[in-house]
Amino acid sequence: MSALMDELFDKVAAGKSKLVPGLVQDCLDDGEAPLDVLNKMISAMDLVGERFKNNEIFVPEMLVAARAMKKGVEVLKPLLAEEGGTSKGKVIIGTVAGDLHDIGKNLVAMMIESAGFEVIDLGVDVPHERFVEAYRENPDTKIIALSALLTTTMPALRDAVALLNEQDFRKDIKIMVGGAPITAEFAAEIGADAYTEDAASAAAKAKELVA
Ligand code: B1M
């Protein structure tokens, strides 16, 4: 791995927001593939998570690392775009109630959008009812996608999906779920239609679901 990629890893982990965009560009100029650069930043966040778990760093440090990663993703965004063009339909996305993590959800939204969907992003800490309301506002929605990044918000994901499953429009939509603690088994158990592990496979699955 190039020294530049290693430096990018270090600067994301250290939360150096001002340096990260330039380093992302340097890595690209050096010939690194956009997806590899993204994965390098994700692995830096894994290290940040490990350090947090071991009490070596605390929430503020996690937050600045997240900001740095977001700045880097902004540089990559146009390069990760796949097709665009005609809309494959609407996708409503959000992180479930009680959960403030948005980098993974934003990546999923970005990849789904670049796969040709119109994305309605409800943000983080989304009350269950808001997903229903957003569908009522956009009755041509094809997919509702929910992220949960904490084990403690898995019950919120379960409840949100349960609420969607009760709706009269359920047969007209597909429900996709994901996030680090989520598994295919859990997704099936709570009655979602699809689980994917990462943003790229979420976009591929979304296309498959509306095909
Ligand atoms: Co928090 N956090 N955090 N955090 N945080 C984790 C998730 C944690 C694993 C760290 C750790 O302890 N090792 C841990 C959770 C442990 C657990 O659940 N068992 C944790 C904790 C404990 C907490 C707090 C409780 C800490 C506290 O306050 N004591 C707190 C909770 C706040 C809340 O949400 N209510 C908290 C807060 C925060 C910050 C706000 C400081 C910040 C988030 C900032 C932000 O997002 N804007 C933060 C961060 C940065 C992290 C880590 C370090 C990085 C998360 C991240 O962005 N990863 C994280 C450790 C880690 O992930 N290794 C950690 C990169 C991102 C690309 O990955 O989000 O997994 P991820 O998304 C992936 C896949 O999951 C998937 O695709 C994405 C990539 O392709 N995916 C989907 C996601 N959604 C999908 C949806 C799909 C399909 C795939 O279909 C719909």
Supply the number of structural domains. Answer: 2
Helical residues, percent: 40-55%
Global outline: globular
State the end-to-end CA separation. 38 Å
Structure description:
By secondary structure, the protein is α/β, with parallel strands linked by helices. It folds into 2 domains: about 5-80, Orthogonal Bundle (Methyltransferase, Methionine Synthase (B12-binding Domains), Chain A, domain 1); about 90-210, Rossmann fold (3-Layer(aba) Sandwich), CATH 3.40.50. The chain has helices spanning about 5-15, 20-30, 35-55, 60-80, 105-115, 130-135, 155-165, 185-190, 200-210, and strands at about 90-95, 120, 140-145, 175-180, 195. It has a 5-stranded parallel beta sheet, with helices on both faces. The protein is globular, with a radius of gyration of 17 Å. The model has no long low-confidence stretch (mean pLDDT about 95). The structure holds CO-5-methoxybenzimidazolylcobamide.
Which helices and strands, and how do they pair?
Blueprint: H1 3-13, H2 20-29, H3 34-53, H4 59-80, E1 90-95, H5 103-114, E2 118-121, H6 128-137, E3 141-147, H7 154-165, E4 174-178, H8 184-190, E5 194-195, H9 199-210
Parallel strand pairs: 1-2, 1-3, 3-4, 4-5
Helix pairs in contact: 1-2, 1-3, 2-4, 3-4, 4-5, 5-9, 6-7
The chain binds CO-5-methoxybenzimidazolylcobamide.
